[in-house]
Design brief:
The chain has about 230 residues and is an alpha+beta fold. The chain contains three helices and eleven strands; from the N terminus they run ααβββββαββββββ.
Length: about 230
């Protein structure tokens, strides 16, 4: 009986020690984490500098056709978390983005964008490991995909170098789950290339993604998917 008591007490002591270690070591895993609220949300940055027809109306013939996502594009997420009692904004990004868009009669008629989720990174490797392996399960669902569900018409006749704002409806696939979403975006054409930027508000549970709550860090249940796409005519 005495031996059982000793074993029980030993196990209890081990649990207490492990809990204390987790409380100390857990936050240290995030020791490099920083508030990234200063990282601006994506916006259109193209300008018509040096373009002879800057400010003129965009002709349908200038933009109609197929467009490809090119270098300089990125996508990722933005979410708020409470880290050791402090509100922190987390921003993850990757440049591994591919896709194509089609424009006809100044209307965006189709778009399919694919993101390599496994390459999305923040300022903290421990967070990224959880994001990849536990939250997003990238071994099973390595990519996220957005597909336009209905055409988007330009507002009036856009000008060269002028950013226009739109709401677009599409289907977003994350972690193997597809949901219809509304995309808040900007688009601009600088006389040669184009840029589309914006964000998609999401609730993680809708995609079967559980926001972590590890005692020292709690992630908010809602966030946004962000993107900035540089486009060149195919």
């Amino acid at each position: 009986m005495r031996r059982r008591t000793v074993v029980f007490l030993s196990i209890a002591a081990a649990v207490v020690v492990l809990g204390a270690v987790a409380a100390v070591v857990g936050p240290k895993l995030y020791r490099n984490a920083a508030d990234r609220s200063g990282v601006a949300a994506p916006t259109v940055t193209l300008s018509p500098t040096g373009v002879a027809d800057a400010g003129t109306r965009v002709a349908a013939s200038d933009v109609d056709g197929s467009w490809q996502v090119t270098d300089g594009s990125y996508a990722g997420y933005r979410v708020k978390e409470v880290l050791n009692g402090t509100d922190v904004t987390v921003v993850g990004r990757t440049e591994k983005v591919t896709g194509s868009l089609t424009v006809s009669g100044l209307r965006l008629t189709s778009a399919r964008i694919q993101v390599d989720v496994a390459s999305i990174a923040t300022d903290e490797p421990a967070r990224d490991s959880y994001f990849r392996d536990t939250a997003m399960r990238v071994n099973r669902y390595p990519t996220a995909v957005f597909e336009l569900a209905s055409p988007v018409q330009a507002s009036g006749t856009p000008k060269v170098g002028e950013a226009q704002s739109y709401d677009a409806t599409g289907n977003l696939t994350l972690a193997g789950v597809t949901k219809q979403v509304t995309v808040q975006l900007q688009a601009a054409f600088d006389g040669a290339d184009a840029q589309v930027a914006g964000s998609i508000p999401i609730t993680f549970a809708d995609y079967g993604v559980q926001a972590p709550s590890l005692g020292f860090v709690t992630v908010q249940p809602k966030g946004s998917v962000e993107f900035s796409l540089r486009l060149a005519k195919a």
